[in-house]
Amino acid sequence: MKMNNILTRSLTGAIFISIILIPLFFSEIISILVLGLFMSIGIIEFYKLFNKAEFVNTNWVAGLFFSVLSYVIISSILFSLLPLETFYILFPTLYSLIIIEIWRKKTNPLINSASLIFGIIYITLPFILMVSILKIDMQKDNNTIPILAGMFILTWINDTFAYLLGSILGKRKLFKRISPNKTWEGTLSGAFCSIIFGIIIGYLFDPTNMFFWFITGVIIPPCGVLGDLMESMFKRDVDIKDTSNIMPGHGGILDRFDSTFFVVPFFFTWTIIYFLFNIY
């Protein structure tokens, strides 16, 4: 049964990875559309998850509307399809969505408003940063591998080897209270593989920026495990295993992107420092 689960995870993961990676090598527009689709599904899963908690009744339609609106506007600004001033539309829109709580007549409006905003920060912001990384990538010299593709690859390598080697070697629990199956052995194995593959990616595909890929391989493991633990904490709080069943063997979009949500802000910052300040 365990082997069947691994095979199911592997097949689903391969399809998912293909949907993400292939557009990154050929079309920024298709990449933005694909990421936007995943963001929309993810934000719905997030609010449905939070609404399972006691005393929470978030207006998920409002959250989805603002997430899609902000994603479209900021992506369009980044690729010069809309003027920068369009960004300011988002401020009154967000406040208007919060004000709706006055008429919803739901209990705990403060908690509902806070969870609405948190979903936008936790889910929508990382996807917007991914589009920003795409823009930086277009301006990078010697672009032999899309840097966003490299980030995804190293994140998935870290997750995959942490899961596989943790299943075989794992003995010491990393954070038993939140994630009983996660072990130090698996976490360190994933980190080691992330660093090694970071060096390999730099050496084979982007030798000019070897240092960038090495540090990326170092950054991803701690951020990834924190993202994984964060979502495990959320799911444990409402007593569910997966956020949905859209991806056999993986659960929902949140389950597949849990590590990525924490990786992206730190990777984005590192990318800005490295390429825009020309430290290479």
Average predicted confidence as pLDDT: 88
* DSSP helix fraction: over 70%
Low-confidence stretches: none
List SSEs in N-to-C order.
HHHHHHHEEHHH
Count of separate DSSP helical elements: 10
Question: Helix/strand-derived class?
Answer: mainly alpha
Radius of gyration: 19 Å
- DSSP strand tally: 2
Shape: globular
Major sheet: arrangement of strands? 1-2
Ends apart, CA distance between termini: 48 Å
Q: Which range does the strand content fall in? A: under 5%
Q: Give the number of domains.
A: 1
Walk me through the structure.
With 280 residues, this protein is mainly alpha-helical. It is built from ten helices and two strands. A two-stranded antiparallel ribbon has the order 1-2. The longest helix has 31 residues. The termini are far apart.
Key terms:
280 residues; mainly alpha; globular; 10 helices; 2 strands
Quick structural overview:
With 280 residues, this protein is mainly α.
Task: Provide the fold topology.
Blueprint: H1 2-26, H2 28-50, H3 60-78, H4 90-99, H5 101-104, H6 109-139, H7 147-169, E1 173-175, E2 179-183, H8 184-205, H9 210-238, H10 253-276
Antiparallel strand pairs: 1-2
